[in-house]
């Protein structure tokens, strides 16, 4: 789970069970149902103030108060996914179509590697495509853990960071798909007016 990934929460059928609430009692009930969950305050930085909550932990009431700031701040809760131990997959999409994928193993478990797009990945891409394109998001990165969508990067910033894993390889794959013309959206007539003095 990535705190602040509000886009991913708009597709409940594609992600794990999720609770967004500032009510400590609701949080405790969610933990009781799912046994072990991951919790983070809404709007927090990725990976910051993330807590793992266990229904058998005697400190659970105190931790629920911490993550909600005593009921004054909403938190996002999702069941802990065992597939997390295998790492996350970032599927890069253009106009809703998957064009490249990178698997990021857990910390200290080896480098990121390119991987194939699975049928489940394509199902998730198809489920998010209409909404993303409708909101003008033509390039995005979908973050998956196992069979679940857990985050959406609508900025593409991950490929622009210095030292981003496999950025050249992924960009080359994306460029190849774009140059092939498969995912280029048609430009409406008049959308790109001629420069002054050329008419």
Automatic annotation (TrEMBL):
This is Glutathione synthetase, ATP-grasp domain. Residues 8-155 form the Prokaryotic glutathione synthetase ATP-binding domain. Pfam families: GSH-S_ATP. InterPro entries: ATP_grasp_subdomain_1, GSHS_ATP-bd. One of its GO terms (molecular function) is glutathione synthase activity. It comes from Pseudonocardia thermophila.
